[in-house]
Specification:
Length: 324
């Protein structure tokens, strides 16, 4: 616990220092890496540590974002930290129900069920346009910056996002290294052997869904806080596929891999947008260019470094020590 906490404090100090050196738009991207890190870390627990393939993780971000948006719009008296807590709790409940329903599903059946969740859930906004804002979503403003703090709003938002994300990552790191984490790995490696060893396989899978959903809901709430809006267009199946690609790119089963995957996800998105603008591509092509970039990079990384970016970093350490 102490080591993880010290690493998190060092990372937070580095982020705070970095935000003083860049422009407001770059601060938004830094904050985006923060909440993406949390979302990818949650999916890492579900897919990397437990072996359950989910194509619908974006649905939990949707739940978290809309929970925060609804509370800010309709219950403005609540403090922002309470909105985030509610987002995590509501998404966790959704994950608990999803995990219970999907506990007996495996492989493509589980992937298909979670994909249906990602496709169908945002459509609810069209059924209740007056309450959920329809296709345009809900816009709002969170005035959380302390009075007298003379820094740009985006810089403050980056601090809040990374403070929340790193606190959650510390808890997640201790969770995955404890007894429950060992159970998750046992279920991933061999469900029959895990069951014979007395591990409740179904309950362990549901726990993984619960933890993953809480992280996703918190990430979605932070995204809504950063962008000041919650709209169904931000939570398409492409988001879920991108998160899964980030898990593989970074390194399946590693929280460090979640960091590399989040950085790669944001960098590829930004690079694709800049390329589309430079080439003056049409809207349809520009919208699908990031997905093509994810696919190409994913194929290259899997072929060259099967254990992802973090696996490459770990392989480079002995070489560096040997050269020294």
């Amino acid at each position: 616990m102490g080591r993880h906490l010290l690493l998190a404090l060092a990372a937070l100090a580095a982020v705070v220092a970095l935000t003083f050196l860049v422009d407001p738009f770059t601060n938004v991207r830094i904050a985006t890496v923060g909440y993406m890190l949390l979302a990818v870390a949650g999916l890492t627990v579900l897919t990397g540590l437990t072996g359950q393939i989910s194509l619908g993780h974006g649905a939990f971000l949707f739940i978290g974002a809309y929970t925060v948006a609804l509370l800010v719009v309709y219950v403005p008296s609540l403090p922002f930290w309470a909105d985030l807590l509610a987002a995590a709790l509501v998404a966790g409940l959704a994950g608990l129900l999803t995990g219970a329903a999907a506990a007996r599903l495996h492989g493509p059946y589980l992937a298909g069920a979670t994909l249906a969740l990602a496709v169908g859930l945002p459509a609810i906004t069209q059924r209740f346009p007056d309450f959920l804002g329809g296709s345009n979503g809900l816009g709002f403003t969170v005035n959380s910056k302390p009075a007298g703090l003379d820094i740009p709003t985006t810089q403050w938002q980056a601090w809040v996002v990374w403070l929340t994300a790193l606190a959650a990552i510390v808890l997640l790191a201790n969770f995955t290294r404890g007894r429950v984490g060992r159970r998750l790995r046992a279920v991933r490696d061999d469900e029959v052997a895990a069951s014979l060893a007395g591990i409740p396989v179904g309950r362990t899978k549901i726990t993984a869904f619960l933890v993953s959903a809480v992280c996703g809901g918190l990430a979605g709430g932070l995204q809504a806080f950063l962008l000041g809006t919650a709209a169904p267009g931000s939570f398409t199946p492409a988001l879920s596929l991108g998160l899964l690609a980030a898990v593989v790119l970074g390194g399946i089963g590693s929280l460090w891999g979640a960091l590399w995957g989040a950085v790669a996800l944001v960098a590829l998105q930004a690079g694709a947008e800049e390329l589309a603008h430079a080439l003056d591509l049409g809207t349809d092509v520009a919208n699908n260019l990031p997905l093509a970039a994810y696919g190409l990079v994913l194929i290259a990384v899997v072929m060259a470094f099967p254990q992802g970016i973090h696996g490459l970093v770990r392989r480079m350490r002995p070489a560096t020590k040997g050269a020294a």
